[in-house]
Write a structure and sequence with these properties.
Blueprint: E1 2-5, E2 11-14, E3 17-21, H1 33-43, E4 53-57, H2 63-71, E5 76-81, H3 84-93, E6 102-106, H4 109-115, E7 121-126, H5 141-150, E8 151-163, H6 168-178, E9 183-188, H7 190-193, E10 199-206, H8 212-220, E11 227-230, H9 231-238
Parallel strand pairs: 4-5, 4-7, 5-6, 7-8
Antiparallel strand pairs: 1-2, 2-3, 8-10, 9-10, 9-11
Helix pairs in contact: 1-2
Length: 263
């Protein structure tokens, strides 16, 4: 069940797993490292302050939509969240400011994506977890093709994923999206990439060039520095993994005990 802990600075947890952190007075403050990495992608998606059209699959407490509304006024954002109880809870305790340009929809992410118009968004952010796992129907080649269809030329797809060594899930995701998008990058902490611990990794994909140098600078400057893998290095990491389809897709792995605990 979703829960908001006011004593922990508006921390949203779902079934005990931390999902979102919100500071209503400072919407540009991003507590979680993966959220900052997604924000780096958003910051580089257009000139500073330029409005964007963004589709968010997965809502949480609307941390990134609030960030975009603050940093890119006039942006148009749709947020798709399947948990209507969560939507109601966030609306009651963490309301969006008037004129935010954010519309929240209670629907399945894949179903909404399939009904979205062609070339209708600049950025598509996927941050969908069923408890602590990415649902299988948001990991397939069919899903990736829908994501590319909805993006405008040069648009960016970014997804928050989670895995640990031997990275069967993460490698399959890279292989799957490489079959749909010509440009890929992966942002993650070195300890995660070396298989020393289970953790988040942000997959970035586009049909146009990705400014990996910019992403690398921003990720390296974070409190918990991350690396940006792309090109030949990312191909070696993907190794012999194969794309997955709707018929053989699986959720992301169950995190080990304590992987995402609130300390």
């Amino acid at each position: 069940m979703p829960d908001i802990d006011r004593d922990r600075a508006w921390l949203l947890t779902v079934d005990g797993a931390p999902q979102s952190y919100v500071d209503l007075d400072e919407p540009t403050h991003l507590e979680f490292e993966y959220a900052r990495r997604l924000a780096h992608v958003l910051d580089n998606a257009a000139d500073e302050g330029e409005p964007l059209t963004v589709l968010h699959l997965g809502g949480g407490a609307l941390t990134l939509p609030r960030y975009i509304a603050a940093t890119r006024p006039g942006s148009r954002q749709d947020v798709v969240e399947a948990d209507r109880g969560l939507i109601d809870l966030v609306a009651e305790h963490l309301p969006l400011p008037e004129g935010s340009g954010v519309t929240v929809h209670g629907a399945d992410a894949r179903a909404w994506l399939e009904g979205a118009p062609d070339a209708s968004v600049d950025v598509l952010i996927a941050d969908v977890f069923g408890g602590s796992r990415v649902p299988a129907h948001l990991t397939s080649a069919e899903y990736a093709r829908e994501a590319r269809r909805v993006l405008r030329p040069g648009g960016i797809y970014a997804a928050n994923l989670a895995d640990g060594a031997p990275f069967a899930f993460l490698r399959s995701q890279l292989a799957t999206f490489a079959g749909v998008f010509p440009e890929l990058a992966l942002i993650a902490e070195p300890a995660v990439l070396r298989g020393r611990r289970f953790g988040n990794a942000v997959l970035v994909a586009s049909d146009g060039p990705l400014d990996t140098a910019y992403l690398a600078r921003r990720a390296a400057a974070d409190a918990f520095p991350a690396r940006v893998e792309y090109g030949a290095t990312l191909t070696r990491f993907t190794a012999d993994a194969h794309p997955v389809s709707d018929t053989d897709a699986v959720p992301s792995p169950v995190p080990p005990d304590g992987a995402f605990s609130v300390g």
